[in-house]
Amino acid sequence: MKKINLLVMSLVSAAALSFSSCSSDNDLGGGASGGNSQVDGFYMTLAIQTPTSNGTRTAQSNEAPATADESDVTTGTFYLVDALGNVTFSKTISAADWQDKKNPTQGQIGKKQLEIRVENVAAGAKYKVYFLANITDAKPWENTIQAESPFAKPFDTPKHFAMFNQNDNGYNNITGMDGNGYTVVFTDDNKKSDNAAEVKYNGVTAPIKIERITARIDQPKTGTTDVIASIEGKENIVATEPEKSAMADAKDKVESITMKQYAITNLANTTYIMQKWNEKQLQIPTSATGFTYYQPATALGSATKLANASYFKPITTEGASEYVFENHSDENATTMYFEYEVKLNKNKFETTADFEDGTFYRYNNKIYNSFAGIRKAYKEVVGLFDGKTDEELVAELTAAKNDATDPEAAIATFRETYKIEVFNKGKTYYHTVIKDNFIGYDNAIQRNSVYQLTVNNIFNVGAQVPNGTPDKNALFYLDVTVSVNPWVLNTQDVNLQ
Hints:
Blueprint: E1 4-7, E2 17-18, E3 38-39, E4 42-46, E5 48-49, H1 68-71, E6 76-81, E7 87-93, H2 95-100, E8 114-118, E9 121-122, E10 126-133, E11 144-146, E12 163-165, E13 182-185, E14 197-198, E15 200-201, E16 204-205, E17 208-212, E18 215-218, E19 221-222, H3 241-253, E20 254-265, E21 267-268, E22 270-272, E23 277-278, E24 281-282, E25 293-294, E26 313-314, E27 321-324, E28 327-328, E29 335-344, E30 360-363, E31 366-368, H4 371-377, H5 390-401, H6 407-418, E32 421-423, E33 427-433, E34 444-445, E35 450-458, E36 480-485, E37 489-496
Parallel strand pairs: 1-36, 2-8, 4-14, 5-17, 18-35, 19-35, 35-37
Antiparallel strand pairs: 1-37, 3-9, 4-8, 6-7, 6-10, 10-13, 11-22, 12-17, 13-15, 15-16, 18-27, 20-26, 20-29, 21-25, 23-24, 28-34, 29-33, 30-31, 30-32, 36-37
């Protein structure tokens, strides 16, 4: 389990509106059962609290402020649900209503009440209360939503982030927030607006806490452009003697290594609107709901071939963030891939490089800039590379790199034929599962959390392709620090070998 430094971000915002009447189309079902008389014209107050700045799951040491785009509630719907699970009453708050009431936005503290005239409810009956922000759904406490494209679109639309009752009940053996725990009971006294019924949680008047349905994964950060050989003090890294030798070789021959792009794979396309748990473990929808993965890791290619390079996004100076649905899967954990550009130290090689574009090789765990260099190191081996000359090998690889149909497939064939790692244009790849270590188990990320990965150390050149494995031994490691924040910030430090 990677170390986690938990940081919190979120914003307290409250929404307030006054309504003196309600049209008949708000009545979505029958009244409560149990012999209580149905009476129209009750009043109730409802306070909505968006994700708070001090967090709800854990204490954080640093803040990761959200933007107003990530925090604002623009529209909303509240629901009253009877003991049978029927929607007795609902009311949608329009964008115009929110704006008219000047609802506080990100960074503003305060809780103003929604005062609502409620119809079709029964005096003395207890109703569950839910609030869905920025999207619509008939029964959000039961239903799922599905993204229209990779990542979580359109549920990450600026100023329209989907939010619903926070539900982390039983979270990591900590008393959490039960999204089903908000209730209201009407009495005859509540027929007057100045004595409106109040929403309660565990018997105490309380605002409904809502949280973003999506998680946020930030552009990774890097703390080094060097390859280091020492793994001393890195308890999570165990290396064999051949691996240590390979690390030392990389440290000697690599002049610089620079993060250029990153990709996020295994993106859940479907999520429950309200977070669900089973025996304290996060649950994700089943295939029966249409659940699958956008950008599956397997689609990045084989051990020798790069595929779907479009998954990768460039590292930018201003940074970037992607929004995703939560995931919990041992086989398809949400994963970040790193693309680095390696530049070799020319002074460390006795031969001239075969390619000026930075292409180099790794053979039997050692780095070479030319076939001539490999040949010199294995001069006693007869029939090396099927007896091909250095010139023939370079010509063959050049043709593969310039293949008009599928250069990646052609390069893959070359790798497989000659059992050699080819780092085309000096590119190398690493990957690590994104983990929410606060949750208490691996291979899970959850909503309303920010995940930031930082690469602290690089111990060796990585794989030749995203899903590749080094020759002979597992020669690269990730020493990753994850920070989790409720907004939640997860930072993950990564050591690459």
